[in-house]
Amino acid sequence: MRILGIETSCDDTGAAIYDSQQGLVVNRLASQVDIHNLYGGVVPELAARDHIRKLLPLIENLMQDPANDGRSVDAIAYTAGPGLAGALLVGASVASGLAYAWNVPALPIHHMEGHLLAPMLEDTFPEFPFVALLVSGGHTQLIDVEAAGKYRLMGQTRDDAAGEAFDKTAKLLGLGYPGGPKIAACAREGREDRFVFPRPMTRQPGLEFSFSGLKTQVLTTTRKQPRLDSQTIADIALAFELAVVDTLTIKCMHALEISGRTRLVVSGGVGANQRLRDRLRQECEKRGGEIFYPRMEFCTDNGAMIAYAGYFRWELEMKEDPKFKHHGGFDIRPRWSLEDLS
Ligand code: KG4
Ligand code: ZN
User: Fold this and answer.
1) Which protein residue has the closest C-alpha to ligand 1 atom 19?
2) Distance from residue 8's CA to the centre of ligand 2 (Å)
3) What's the gap in Å between 300 CA and the centre of ligand 1?
4) Residues 99 and 131 in one domain
5) Do residue 212 and residue 278 come from a single domain?
6) Domain ranges, residue 73
7) What's the chain's average pLDDT?
8) Which residues are near ligand 1 (CB < 6 Å)?
9) Residue 299 has pLDDT above 70, yes or no
10) What pTM, to 2 d.p., does this model score?
């Protein structure tokens, strides 16, 4: 089975082809960073307009790639939510139009299920069950994945997502957008002992997160400095990154303990953070557990994870009902809980 995956939930236009025999065939991404960087964050209307400009040429280019060998696809998977409504509508309408023209089903995919399954595109991938840490610009969640498609939310953020905290903090420090990579790069020049920020909610027994206070801490710290030179900014960036990494690590280890699982999956944009990857690997290995991540480029938004999730959903739903048929028409769900899929 060959599936075209389309991702347009936020500020990346992604398209990819996944084949159940060959694996990932071809993958393309058009980033909008240069557009949103001017405003210090994603402007939803501009995101939607740029998806309109980029998506069809991207798909045309993908289908004509020599790796696809001129073949057609058996289904089209598109991100139906959660995400920005206008941006989602572009992917949903293009997917449904092409599906109608090519007489194949259009499969609405949950963006976070895409992230959660992204490690399945790697040579070493996790078996079920596992605990997943999903950390992106809009979500910070710990999910207990008991079996294929069976999701239980163990804990999530009460306010800002981890990626959002990176983005807001980078803005405060004048580092630009997107904040995660900018802070990580700046923190490399930082000195470790100058500032220490709290590890929010780690003294409580639950698995909830709260990152909005950390951003305020950064703000008050910057205001107290007589001079905000580049070394001071790097020192603050490092203290912030260490606080987020430490907090996520403590909660992940706690989630593994509570659930009795031994495998941890980390995905979503913040999962591209090298310090977080190293730290989580260390802690998992210390406990005799295993850790799985997607490659860096598949941590942030991409079409490959949506194409794979399309294949995964198709297989799952066919198993439950071999006569299963997807209806025509299309749907978007800007707010959509992962647990609704179980
Ligand atoms: O998954 P993603 O591409 O889009 C959403 O679904 O939100 O995640 C984007 C988020 C942004 O907040 C960005 O700052 C963060 O992931 N991010 C990082 C890194 N790369 C991207 N955060 C920390 N370190 C990074 N290296
Ligand atoms: Zn995402």
Assistant:
1) 180
2) 10
3) 6
4) no
5) yes
6) 2-117+299-341
7) 96
8) 10, 136-138, 163-164, 166-167, 178-181, 184, 268-270, 272-273, 300-301
9) yes
10) 0.97
- pLDDT at position 321 is 74
What is the CA(195)–ligand 2 centre distance, in A? Answer: 31
Report the pLDDT value the prediction gives residue 331, as an integer from 0 to 100.
85
Q: CATH number of the domain that 219 lies in?
A: 3.30.420.40
In a shared domain, residues 55 and 155: no
At 253 the pLDDT is 98
The amino acid occupying position 315 is: E
Q: Is pLDDT at 324 greater than 70 in this prediction?
A: no
Do residues 112 and 158 share a domain?
Answer: no
Read off the tokens for 114. 């895409």
Domain shared by 280 and 310, yes or no: no
pLDDT tens across 48-58, in order? 999 999 999 99
3-state secondary structure of 20: coil
For residue 111, report the distance from its CA to the centre of ligand 2, in Å: 6
Cα–Cα distance list, 153 to 87, 132, 298 (Å): 26, 10, 23
Note whether 115 and 288 are within 8 A (CB).
Answer: no
Residues 61 and 161 both lie in one domain: no
Same domain flag for 170 and 273: yes
Residue of 164, 254, 174, 259 whose CA lies nearest to 211: 164
| Whole-number Å distance between alpha carbons of 337 and 341 | 8
* One domain, residues 206 and 96: no
Using most ligand atoms within 8 A of CB, pick from 13, 300, 305 the residue to mutate for ligand 1: 300
Burial of 78 (0-12, 13-18, 19+ CB in 10 A): buried
Q: How many domains does the chain have?
A: 2
pLDDT tens for each residue of 235-276: 999 999 999 999 999 999 999 999 999 999 999 999 999 999
Place of tokens 């802070």: 183
Atom of ligand 1 lying closest to residue 179 CA: 14
